[in-house]
Design brief:
Elements: H1 2-16, H2 34-43, H3 50-60, E1 65-68, H4 75-89, E2 99-102, H5 106-120, E3 127-130, H6 136-144, E4 149-152, H7 154-163, E5 174-177, H8 180-185, H9 189-198, E6 204-209, H10 214-223, E7 228-231
Helix pairs in contact: 3-4, 4-5, 7-9
The structure holds adenosine-5'-diphosphate and magnesium ion (MG).
């Protein structure tokens, strides 16, 4: 649509001209660990975007969040920063997958994985990418190593849940549903419900969506516990 094209153009321009968020806050005031601050310095990001400013402090408190914010608003760091903070603060007692990030497409999963890798550089936290179109046996081996973070598309991770014997979600501490509206419009509702049902009840869930449709609300009711709702309008 035309709106989407305009947004794309604005986003492209913002990336060309080194986008500086309008928020007053600085990442250095967020009490983040030094590996996270180092990674942000590598990115040359000093200030959080609006969605990051609003959601990171609440996510760090362990709250469930339902966030609506458009494409390009900086949602990836809004969940990756709290994830790395959490994993570092509570180092693992046992070898297990502790965080699951679900995205609708392979491309989005890969983009998220690339950012996650940057944070991993300064920590011993490992993430893996589990998406369709790649060899199942190779992925099964990756999952056998119990990576702390799994970034996945729903269909393929359900496949492993059912068929990769040592892989389970019973130690999940944080679940991210990224682009929830697209996850649902692509027909993943049942798959997501199944995946959520395999996770422990006691966990933190962060749901992100460009729009809050009725179906996204339903998903929020099913998988989130007393969520705080945050809505950010488009602005750069
Ligand atoms: P979304 O998931 O909301 O579509 P992304 O997380 O992909 O958005 O981020 C969009 C763009 O903004 C990316 O190019 C990213 O590198 C950039 N970005 C994210 N956070 C910041 C920030 N705090 N300062 C400057 N640029 C940022
Ligand atoms: Mg995104």
């Amino acid at each position: 649509s035309q709106v989407r094209e305009t947004k794309k153009k604005i986003l492209k321009k913002s990336q060309e001209t080194k986008f500086v968020p309008k928020t007053k806050a600085y990442f250095k005031d967020f009490h983040l660990s030094s590996p996270i601050l180092k990674t942000l310095r590598d990115f040359k990001y000093e200030k959080p975007t609006e969605v990051q400013e609003k959601s990171i402090p609440l996510a760090l408190e362990g709250r469930d969040l339902a966030i609506s914010a458009v494409t390009g608003s900086g949602k990836t760091l809004a969940f990756l920063i709290p994830i790395f903070h959490h994993l570092q603060l509570r180092s693992r007692k046992q070898n297990s997958t502790r965080v699951l990030i679900l995205t609708p497409t392979r491309e989005l999963a890969k983009q998220c994985f690339d950012v996650s890798e940057k944070f991993s550089k300064y920590t011993d936290i490992d993430s893996v990418l589990i998406v369709g179109g790649k060899r199942v046996d190779v992925q099964a081996n990756l999952l056998e190593n119990k990576p702390e973070i799994v970034i996945a598309t729903p269909g393929r991770i359900l496949d492993h849940l059912l068929n990769t014997r040592s892989f389970g979600l019973d130690k999940i501490e944080m679940l991210v549903l990224d682009e929830a509206d697209r996850l649902l419009s692509m027909g993943f509702e049942k798959v997501i419900n199944r995946i959520v049902s395999e996770c422990p009840k006691k966990k933190q869930t962060l749901l992100f969506s460009a729009t809050m449709t009725d179906k996204v609300e339903d998903l929020t009711t099913i998988s989130l516990n007393k969520p705080i709702r945050i809505s950010i309008n488009f602005q750069l």
